[in-house]
Amino acid sequence: MNKLTNIGLEKQDSVEIADKLNELLANYHIYYQNLRGFHWNIKGIHFFQLHAKYEELYNSALTRIDALAERILTIGQKPLHSFSDYLRVSSIQEATSLSGDRETVEATHQNLSVIVSLERDILALAAERDDEGTVALVSEDINENEKTLWMLKAFLS
């Protein structure tokens, strides 16, 4: 019996990596929905800047969600695709009733910190298992997310 996926990864390795990618996917979905809510409900003197920034961030998150799901499929596994699964698996919690500039930026920073932490775990696992495609995908994402974290922290300073 063949123990390799169609792209040459060990099947067991692809299952372990996909499990972590699905965890990241779930967290990204809750992060995305939180950003949508912040975009719709933001109030205050920073409305125009944050309304636009949250739209930029949720559009970026949506692109990353698609890339993650496609990577899970590429390594021979199935991406989570129900909101109930996302809520069950995600470490990020739904943000409700937030509309102030500081509280939404703090929540966004906390959410993105969870994502970056997961990405670092996935990066180490994928590198250990010689999954260069996942390493490349996650490395690029970490770089962008760290820059966003820095910007969010600058706003809060």
Automatic annotation (TrEMBL):
Keyword Membrane (UniProt): no
GO function terms (MF aspect): DNA binding; ferric iron binding; oxidoreductase activity, acting on metal ions
Top-level taxon of the source organism: Bacteria
Domain Ferritin/DPS: 19-156
Cytoplasm recorded as keyword: no
Keyword vocabulary terms for this entry: DNA-binding
Protein family membership: Belongs to the Dps family.
Protein name per its UniProtKB record: Starvation-inducible DNA-binding protein
The organism of origin for this protein: Pontibacter virosus
Source taxonomy: Bacteria, Pseudomonadati, Bacteroidota, Cytophagia, Cytophagales
